[in-house]
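Section 5.1 Outputs to date
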Amino acid sequence: MSENAVARKKQIPLQEGLFAQDSDGRYHLLATQCDRCKLTFFPKRKYCAKCGSSEVHEVQLSDRGKVFTFSLIDRKSKYTLIEPPYIQAEVQMSEGIRVFTVLDQCGPEDVSIGMPVEVYVDKVQEDPDGNDVITFKFRPVV
């Protein structure tokens, strides 16, 4: 690949609006909080799923949580970009919501309920133009 092609390579989110990077380089998930009932939802929504209000605003979630539950996935689903085996987890965020995610950079024998984890962004594939397609995952806090 030429130097110009490398310079043009981009990181493209698998789905827009799931996460953002702060000025310190840390990634945070983006959620919606209802102005009326104060419930928080991830991923973001246009309307509150509890009270139906359209009075919602975007909030940035903390970058850490704890494993609530997990499962080892050993078969490839038709719609997944990740090759098995991998760990699917539900992470309890400090804001009170749970995020369904892939837990990475550890084996199933290393995972435990309550284990502290942090969000990060990783490449899942390349698009036809050679750009990195990225999404969020969680990994153990070191």
